[in-house]
Amino acid sequence: MSVMTQDRPRERDENTWGIGRPPRNRRELLRKLIWIGVWLVFLSAPVHDLAAGNHSPTGTAAGWVGLATFVGAYMALVFRNMGRPFARTVVVSLICFLAVLAIVLCLTLGGAWLGLFCYVSVACGATLSVRAAYWAIPATAAVMTLVGWRTDLEEAKNLVLLVLLIGFAMTGVGQLVRTTVELRQARATVAHLAANEERLRLARDLHDLLGHSLSLITLKSELAGRMLPGRPDQAAQQVADIEQVSRQALVDVREAVTGYRRPRLAAELAGARVALTAAGVSAELPDEPDLTAVPEESESALAWALREAVTNVVRHSGARRCAVEVVRRQTLDGPTLELSVEDDGSGGSGEGPGNGLTGLTERLEKAGGMLEAGRVKRGFRLVARVPAGAAVDVGSPA
Fold first, then answer.
1. How does DSSP assign 301-333, residue by residue?
2. How far apart are CA 141 and CA 309, in angstroms?
3. CA-CA distance, 223 to 238, in Å (whole number)?
4. CB count, 10 Å around CB of 280?
5. Cα–Cα dist 102/122, whole Å
């Protein structure tokens, strides 16, 4: 039932377009191709020039080959840079190749081909470092102006500002890609460190729980073995002590495992944010609540309620928005901690409450709480209440 481990393997928050990584499926590949291909609009002038028959058959054929080569090199450079970038020397070589090919095509086929320098500028901004791009983009505009002086100076003047603006704009996109890659790597590192820390904590707890007990069992076993031939009564007493220590160790281990497996409300809130965001649902969640004096059983019951509610939102509701609140209320029966999960979806399908809500109701009743769930004016709302212990303020809605 856990929304943190079972639902929505794809992350769709900042990764909807797969920023900074290669496409994982055909859908992401198509999106990347469309995002890059839309900028091929500046090729309309060269294509129109070739289609108009302004050149000899040999010149037209050479123009089509040159244009296809230019587009292929540009697409390979920019598209690859959004996933696994080329080495720096390869990037520089491809940019120089694009620039030389643009110069040759413009000088041989005319000023209609000056728009190719827009792509050279885009490639500089998207693939070079910020410092290098700040020199390469003005240099591209300057080269285009010189070529335009030999072919079509008026067209070159019209394109200078565009070449500069689109190039510098792509430096921002390139920086965004690099930052996203670094952020993803940092998240993976943090997750790895957290897992290592959890393993170390588990090892320390097991040592503290079982180290003394196992040492005592070993010592008493050796003592009972030495007493057994001549003093069987005392040996039997040692065996009885071993049994008692073993039973206590088993109880300690079970309590520890129960504590590890018991869901925590703060952890479930964090997991709910990840699950809702990954499902494309706008999430409104509170900050981590202060659960001082709240019984562990009550916190665990609310955590289960949040997990079940978010699972239903992600799987069945089709909601676009989900709001979660954790508030303390004073009632005639004493202070209660209330969890509210409201979405704007359909509330699932089927008649009556499902097995999940039925089991959740029983779990809350066992903790002394209650569950309310049903349709509201604009969606579905689930409210879980549990005893909250002493009257202190806890978290407020976001």
1. HHHHHHHHHHHHIIIII--SEEEEEEEEEEETT
2. 57
3. 7
4. 13
5. 13
Residue appearing with tokens 């709910």: 272
Q: How many CB atoms lie within 10 A of CB 163?
A: 27
**Structure pTM?**
0.47
Measure the CA–CA gap between 307 and 384, rounded to whole angstroms.
Answer: 12
What is the per-residue pLDDT across 339-394, written as a single tens digit (0 to 9) for each? 999 998 876 544 555 567 888 888 888 888 889 988 888 888 999 999 887 544 44
Nearest alpha carbon to residue 236 among 219, 223, 249, 218? 223
**What sign has the CA pseudo-torsion 130, 131, 132, 137?**
positive
Look up tokens 């065996």; give the residue.
Answer: 239
Nearest by Cα to 344 from 302, 285, 398, 282:
282
Place of tokens 């879980």: 384
Residue 311: which pLDDT band, with cuts at 50, 70 and 90? confident
**How far is Cα 367 from Cα 360, in angstroms, rounded to an integer?**
11
Q: What is the dihedral of CA 208, 210, 214, 216, to 10 degrees?
A: 50
CA distance 259 to 154: 76
Q: What one-character-per-residue DSSP string does 242-309 give?
A: HHHHHHHHHHHHHHHHHHHHS--HHHHHHHHHHHHHHTT-EEE-PPPP--TT--HHHHHHHHHHHHHH
pLDDT score of 170 more than 80: yes
> Strands 334-343 and 370-376, how do they pair?
unpaired
